Amino acid sequence: MITFTMNGAALQVERGSTLLEAAQFYGFPIPTLCHMEGLSPYGACRLCVVEIDAKTRSRLVSSCTYPVQEGLVVRTASVRVVRTRRMILELLLASCPQSKTIQDLAAAYDVRHQRFRQEYEDCILCGRCVRVCEQQMMAKAIGFRGRGENRGIGTPFDVQSDTCRLCGACMYVCPACELRCSYAEPEKAICGGCANLSPQCVNVDKFDDIMCYMNPCVACEIVQR
């Protein structure tokens, strides 16, 4: 067993566990997009970033690919982490503003404005479809191609694959295929229909090291009762 600290609590997990697996086991919520149970970790979306204390300074790492180490100090909801997640969500909204999954995540993190140019690229290169086709369907009908801004997903040479069984698994796991909102103007790109408009119970200025990670918020439930 490996002993480490997460959000101030001393915890133990089996050797080989990732930070995301440890957080999920102990009930610390971490948002994910490219990660999916049953598929290999990919670390593309970076939404699952957490802050760890290195030897000289703290740094951000993707929790789905980073293994738990002895004596590691981890914060899953520090101000730096939450700020980074909000920035990533804005970038995802610029690429795929109509995704229900991304819209819900943006609402959960109180993202009200999207400051980047609207691209409408649809595909966010999370790799879910590629991995489910290879690892679950055992087909390898699609894959990544190109590099940089030309990187995309498709069949080899853009020819219909003989191994594709038209099972639809790639569309089922794709967050960009879960469309909901249809606004075309950048200032209206964020739906906000599911946003929690109640004020946060944690004073960010007072608790600069870590923000509230309770889901649902215990204080909010007490107020509602």
How would you summarize this macromolecular structure in one to three sentences?
By secondary structure, this protein is an alpha+beta fold.
If you consult CATH, what is the topology of the largest domain? Answer: Ubiquitin-like (UB roll)
For the terminal residues, how far apart are their CA atoms?
41 Å
User: Strand fraction band?
Assistant: 5-15%
Structural class, by secondary structure, is: alpha+beta
Major beta-sheet overview? 5 strands, mixed
- Principal-axes geometry comes out as globular
Number of domains: 2
Number of strands: 7
Number of H- or I-type helical stretches: 6
Which sequence of SSEs, written as H and E, runs from N to C? EEHEEEHHHEEHH
> How are the strands of the largest sheet arranged?
2-1-5-3-4
Helical content, roughly?
Answer: 10-25%
Low-confidence stretches: 196-207
Instruction: State the CATH class of the largest domain.
Output: Alpha Beta
* CATH architecture assignment name of the largest domain: Roll
Mean pLDDT: 83
Rg result: 19 Å
Q: How would you explain this protein's 3D organization?
A:
This protein is of the alpha+beta class and 225 residues long. The protein has 2 domains: 2-117 and 182-219, Ubiquitin-like (UB roll); 128-177, Alpha-Beta Plaits (2-Layer Sandwich). 24% of the residues lie in helices and 13% in strands. It is built from 6 helices and 7 strands; from the N terminus they run E-E-H-E-E-E-H-H-H-E-E-H-H. The strands form 2 sheets. A 5-stranded mixed β-sheet has the order 2-1-5-3-4, with helices on both faces. Residues 196-207 have low confidence and may be disordered.
